[in-house]
Amino acid sequence: xxSHQTILELDDASVMRDGRYILDGLTLxxxxxxxxxxxxANGSGKSTLMKLLTLQHYPLAHVDxxxxxxxxxxxxxxxxxxxxxxxxxxxxxxxALLDAHAVNHLSALDIxxxxxxxxxxxxxxxxxxDSMRERAYAALNNVGALALAxxxxxxxxxxxxxxxxxxxxxxxxxxxxxxxxxxxxLDLVARFGFMQIVRNLARQGRTVILVTHHFDEVIPEIQRxxxxxxGRIAADGAKAEVLQSASVSAAFEHAITxxxxxxxxxxxxxx
Length: 271
Description:
alpha/beta; Rossmann fold; 9 helices; ATP hydrolysis activity; single chain; six-stranded mixed beta sheet
């Protein structure tokens, strides 16, 4: 795929909920091969922005009828077809899988296979062939979770389950990997292990779009950072230019000092 192809284009895109703007006039483009972090305080609009990409939210219509959102260059998508182009990992998806597991008793292999159908679990009549199973096992192996293949979801640690979610996201070889606050609920060791997997995937050429409020999750492979504040872009550009104490303090409305060490950034409250 060309690195010039655009994953997401927003043209003055706004989302309103309960009479207030969650996103307010965003204009930006994210391209294939452009590893990007979207950072902001809680309520800044980070997850809403990603839900525009995955068509879980829709923007306000422009008066002249022009589109405010294009995904992979297209204004209109079949939602399930689009989700096969994107690999999505989030704590919300983990919770939804736990609900699905209560009905279908899902193993890791079941969860990964469900990625072919953009579903949470799959029906017995789903057509699963040997090629799909081979790819599912390969995806589990790629994230170091092959030993979990037959393990039940309710017997996994949170860290193990997130590895399985990455394998599910990768099984259909998506064009981009969307990580929406994916380490929520993970302890320090599990969070580090998870982000190491993300680093490996970025090095393999998978476009990574990371939504987070943890500066130390901005892995060295991330090239671009978008800071959000109250639904608007506070800063957008090369990582080293955006991750400055002044710009971050303005976005979070609190004095924050950033330190960079070996490609990672660490935040300290206060000047």
